[in-house]
Write a structure and sequence with these properties.
The complex is a heterodimer of chains A (114) and B (109). Chain A is mainly β. Chain A has no helices and eleven strands. In chain A, the strands form two sheets. In chain A, strands 2, 4, 5, 6, 9, 10 and 11 form a seven-stranded mixed β-sheet that branches. The radius of gyration of chain A is 13 Å and the shape is globular. Classes of the chains: A mainly beta (114), B mainly beta (109).
Chain lengths: 114, 109
């Protein structure tokens, strides 16, 4: 594909429900990143993968958040027992490699928890 | 962690005007990226500029790593330049980006 893609573009859910957000990185990019952007703020780091393994998950806010990248390409961000405070735009980025390379961002998934 | 501040926070200009946006960071960095977030929320890469000067059309950027700042220049502004401009730097030795506070640019026809 030409760029990073994310699905769904919008997700509305009820408090307490489980959601999955998907990211398809640019073909051949080995590094994949998740960020979260709240209204009026810059994106904040959540987790990043080099290949299949999570290289750094220090930005995940709590154990309700989990992400996987089982085959080193597509990644899924999973949120359990959603809370209203989880409402934000979730952004995915990829780069050719880890270590001083440009990160390219997808269009984001806007999550609204009612 | 590293702190990143941008100025000004808001900028309103007439079409055709020039502008300079500034990004200050609190620690040594080995790269820096400038992004434009358009009104639809898409983050668009403008520059990857760890040091020196780069130009792309009406936009140019300069990073002075030793003094811990970067500047983004926009010349002959167009309404499509409106949006929020972010700079972002990695935590040293780590690739996770820390974003600045952003500059919201509004270009009036």
């Amino acid at each position: 594909g030409a760029g990073v893609s994310q699905t769904p573009s919008n997700k509305v859910t009820e408090k307490g429900k489980y959601v999955e957000l998907r990211c398809d990185p640019i073909s051949g990019h080995t590094a994949l990143y998740w960020y979260r952007q709240s209204l009026g703020q810059g994106p904040e780091f959540l987790i990043y993968f080099q290949g299949t393994g999570a290289a750094d998950d220090s930005g995940l806010p709590n154990d309700r958040f989990f992400a996987v990248r089982p085959e080193g390409s597509v990644s899924t961000l999973k949120i359990q027992r959603t809370e209203r405070g989880d409402s934000a735009v979730y952004l995915c980025a990829s780069s050719r490699q880890m270590g001083g390379d440009t990160q390219y961002f997808g269009p984001g998934t806007r999550l609204t928890v009612l | 962690g590293i702190q990143v501040e941008q100025s000004p926070p808001d900028l309103i200009l007439q079409e055709g005007a020039n502008s300079t946006l500034r990004c200050n960071f609190s620690d040594s960095v080995n790269n820096l990226q400038w992004f434009h977030q358009n009104p639809w929320g898409q983050l668009i890469n403008l520059f990857y500029i760890p040091s020196g000067t780069k130009q792309n059309g009406r936009l140019s950027a300069t990073t002075v790593a030793t003094e811990r700042y970067s500047l983004l220049y926009i010349s002959s502004s167009q309404t499509t330049d409106s949006g929020v401009y972010f700079c972002a730097v990695p935590n040293f030795g780590n690739e996770k980006l820390t974003f600045g506070t952003g500059t919201r640019l509004t270009i009036i026809p």
